[in-house]
TrEMBL record:
<dbReference type="InterPro" id="IPR042174">
    <property type="entry name" value="RecF_2"/>
</dbReference>
<protein>
    <recommendedName>
        <fullName>DNA replication and repair protein RecF</fullName>
    </recommendedName>
</protein>
<dbReference type="GO" id="GO:0005524">
    <property type="term" value="F:ATP binding"/>
</dbReference>
<comment type="similarity">
    <text>Belongs to the RecF family.</text>
</comment>
<feature type="domain" description="RecF/RecN/SMC N-terminal">
    <location>
        <begin position="2"/>
        <end position="346"/>
    </location>
</feature>
<keyword id="KW-0227">DNA damage</keyword>
<keyword id="KW-0547">Nucleotide-binding</keyword>
<keyword id="KW-0742">SOS response</keyword>
<dbReference type="GO" id="GO:0000731">
    <property type="term" value="P:DNA synthesis involved in DNA repair"/>
</dbReference>
<feature type="binding site">
    <location>
        <begin position="30"/>
        <end position="37"/>
    </location>
    <ligand>
        <name>ATP</name>
    </ligand>
</feature>
<keyword id="KW-0067">ATP-binding</keyword>
<keyword id="KW-0235">DNA replication</keyword>
<dbReference type="GO" id="GO:0006260">
    <property type="term" value="P:DNA replication"/>
</dbReference>
<dbReference type="GO" id="GO:0005737">
    <property type="term" value="C:cytoplasm"/>
</dbReference>
<dbReference type="GO" id="GO:0006302">
    <property type="term" value="P:double-strand break repair"/>
</dbReference>
<dbReference type="InterPro" id="IPR001238">
    <property type="entry name" value="DNA-binding_RecF"/>
</dbReference>
<dbReference type="GO" id="GO:0003697">
    <property type="term" value="F:single-stranded DNA binding"/>
</dbReference>
């Protein structure tokens, strides 16, 4: 899979842009604040119908315009598929093959994208919410079922929390409706937890090989899914459902008192273990960077395994954050494998030596021109 063409109208600092990309490495070259990251953001937006930098879609609209549009053509194994997302005052419209999609969840998965930016180091050393978001975004691309269960879980969770807050002010609360919501939440939650564990085992397999290579055989990387259930309670969707139901029963009085749901996959975490130590807490900065790089590169192979297509890789100023050894491993791993977009202020050193026949685009104040690197 790769992005053949991209068209932007009133998106960030791009008034009108129409560009064709190469199926290999595309380098976006320019000084800071010229629009390099904005271009990557538009590709991410085309894939997910949302930005990775803001939750307000109207932040994406050029300040001189009222609406914005992102169009792209993706090439899959046997066909080209046009995609389009419009941002208007009334909301978003997403189209596949010029047909508007009734739900955005039906749109996601058309273009698979992996973004790697300096802040992605927070996957390892950041808060649990960062890792949960990472899991949901990446696994949601690979599995419509996971995306559906996550959406339904969030909807029921919102209703349950609202009802719990109402019960706080009632002397004799009616718990029948709470039990109905709890059953629904446990059902969707069990599906999510079971799929997360299965996906993480596959991601761990690919990550271990890469991490072992980068560390020259000195380190072994493992993943641990952190939840209130014991491992033997997570062998099936049914056992997870039963376990969650029992936990909800024990927590019910406390949840009513505090007015919020206190257990479930929305509070779970992933622990990265290197040589039997939690790398998030006890790892060196080098180990944390290697772990983040291993996980990101492993996503490429896992996505190909799950969908039959390699994703598009977006590297936003990440080369400057990696030493020569990790740069070499990254660029060698992606060469002739996935379409890659790299933002940088200069293509030099290891990158210049390792990237074969890149398509180089100079960006200056939202103006993009392809050049030939000598």
């Amino acid at each position: 899979m790769y992005l053949e063409t991209l068209e932007l109208h009133n998106f960030r600092n791009y008034d009108d842009l129409n560009v064709e990309f190469g199926s290999g490495v595309n380098v976006l070259l320019g000084e800071n604040a010229q629009g390099k990251t904005n271009l990557l953001e538009s590709i991410y937006f085309l894939a997910f119908s949302r930005s990775h930098r803001t939750n307000n879609d109207h932040d994406l609209v050029n300040w001189e315009g009222h609406d914005a549009r992102v169009l792209g053509t993706i090439r899959k194994k046997h066909t080209s598929v046009p995609l389009e997302i419009d941002i208007t005052a009334k909301g978003k419209k997403a189209k596949v093959n010029h047909l508007e999609q009734g739900k955005l969840s039906q749109y996601i998965g058309q273009l698979n994208v992996i973004l790697f930016a300096p802040e992605d180091l927070s996957i390892v050393k950041g808060a649990p919410s960062v890792r949960r978001r990472f899991i949901d975004m990446e696994f949601g691309q690979m599995s419509p079922k996971y995306l559906y269960n996550s959406s339904q879980y969030r909807s029921v969770l919102k209703q349950r929390n609202q009802y719990l807050r109402q019960l706080q002010f009632k002397e004799h609360p009616d718990l029948v409706y709470l039990d109905v919501l709890t059953e629904q939440l446990a059902a969707f939650g069990a599906e999510i937890v079971f799929q997360r564990i299965a996906f993480l085992k596959k991601l761990e397999k690919w990550s271990q090989v890469i991490h072992n290579e980068i560390s020259q055989g000195q380190e072994i990387l493992r993943f641990q899914y952190v939840m209130p259930l014991k491992e033997n309670q997570a062998s099936s969707v049914e056992s997870i459902y039963d376990g969650l139901q029992n936990l909800f029963k024990r927590q019910r009085d406390k949840e009513v008192q505090q007015g919020k749901t206190m257990i479930g996959p929305h509070l779970d975490d992933v622990r990265f273990i290197v040589n039997d130590k939690n790398v998030s807490t006890f790892g060196s900065q080098g180990q944390q960077r290697t772990t983040a790089l291993s996980v990101k590169l492993a996503e490429i192979d896992l996505m190909q395994e799950e969908t039959g297509e390699y994703p598009v890789l977006l590297l936003d100023d990440v080369l400057s954050e990696l030493d020569d050894s990790r740069q070499t491993h990254l660029l060698t791993a992606i060469q002739n494998k996935v379409q890659t977009f790299i933002t940088t202020t200069s293509l030099s050193g290891v990158a210049q030596q390792l990237i074969n026949e890149p398509h180089v685009f100079n960006i200056n104040h939202g103006d993009l021109k392809e050049t030939k690197e000598e």
